[in-house]
Amino acid sequence: MYAKPVTADAQVRADVERNRAAIIEGAITLLGQSPSSSMQQIAEAVGVNRATLYRHFTNREQLLTALHHAVLADTAALSEQLPTEGPVVPALRGYLDDAITIGERYRFILMYRRTDPGMFEMEAAATLPVVRTIRRGQSQGEIDVRLDPVFAAGQMAMLVVGAVGLVERDAMTLDAARSQAQIAFGNAVVPARR
What we know:
With 194 residues, the chain is mainly alpha-helical. It has two domains: 1-58, Arc Repressor Mutant, subunit A (Orthogonal Bundle), CATH 1.10.10; 61-189, Tetracycline Repressor, domain 2 (Orthogonal Bundle), CATH 1.10.357. The chain is built from nine helices and no strands. Helix 4 runs antiparallel to helix 5, helix 4 packs parallel to helix 7 and helix 5 packs across helix 8. The longest helix has 26 residues, at 8-33. It is globular, with a radius of gyration of 20 Å.
């Protein structure tokens, strides 16, 4: 059996996707080091000309939206890995550590003000598995039943943002912020002693 020949259109589409992926990856790296980098600086760092960058993203806002989509996709993929059986608290602790790692990678976008209501819907969808896991933990007696699961999932997200923000301000090392987030998580979800 012979492989189908690659058409010119397929090659162009592959090049376009490759350029877009390179722009996003390069922007993540550059903006993580220098959040105020210009579109020109992003193009130079990626190794594409400005025209190519602007064909993909007509302005900085569109690029930042694409980067926010990337962080939400990574967060959703992480959330989907939460187990549906077994102890919940250790799984959520692991999730929190991994979420902080993702947050550190995308710290510039976590600190960016978002106004697109569609992003909030995507954030809610990305954390839905966390909410389900928290509910399961409540039914197993691992998590305080007085906590609203949506609020608790939001707390976890705020722990990530808080930890990353402290690292960004050089107020703490990443390891220290991660450790403090774990302590705060444990204090927030453990059932109250009677």
